[in-house]
Amino acid sequence: MDIFDEVPSIEDINKYYDTFNIQVNKKQRTINAVKQGSLLRKLQEKLLENFLENIPLSDCVCGFVKRKNYLDFLIPHCEKKYFLRIDIKDFFNSLKDNLVRDTLSEYIDIKIPDEKENVIDEIITITTLNGSLPQGAITSPQLSNILMRRIDIRIRKYCEKFKVEYTRYADDMLFSSDNPEITKSFFIGKLKEILKDINLKINSKKVIKTKDKIILNGYVVSNNISLTRKKLKKLNTLLYAFEYSGSIKKYPQTFSEYIKRLKTVNSSLIDLSEGDERSKVQIINYLAGYRAFLLSFNALSMKDYTCDFSNRIKRTEIILEKLSDIK
Prior knowledge:
This protein is an alpha+beta fold.
């Protein structure tokens, strides 16, 4: 297979990664990002496109799946009474190279045993770092879903017994039902047992059990899906400061005037240390991004399940147009 002609040696593999830490929800995560333009990145891209993306996934998976997003993860849980959210502890680092070997052997159809093992060895070299999936490699998201396929199917079959809905977004597992049994210890105990088969553990500190609604990452799931005030706070502030001078509805004539209004409403909202021009670009990019985000709520396929943000979308579009004109 020509994709493996230039596989890096195990001794060299670390040099293809940039390692750094980031803060996510007040917790530090180590990222091992494959260097842009490197041989390893090119090999991962080829492997992803020509092999990994052709392996089927369970339909309950929503993270890292083409044409699916976070709303697809949440929508099946609308109009449910009880909710359970489970986080898998140290997800990528817990998916080990022996699991990659066992799983991919099912999908590689090579009759000669030694040749098949050599191919799997090469794939493991390309996709793992220090014995597990690196968070930051472009193959890790798809490969994690492949490694979880059997687990997802088992969990779904278990959930069917209790009329429980199940979806997964990476290490986030969400369950909902009109049956209160999903909040009982035996239900979570069975999930722990299933996950243990591939040495995964539940992060007990992040287990959430709720009734009537659940809030995840700024989204509120109940009869439909809406956003928390906190999630909308920055957008609302940017809109209000542009539309109102005090209590009078009036658009600013200059960008400097808009900045003064923002400082009055919320001085810590945006970093103004690099001058008006950089701040203007920053605000335009933020508004354009949030507009795209809200448009996802108004997509035809989502409208029956999500709040209507048409008004905010329209207001954002007006401000974007006017911001491009004022100096």
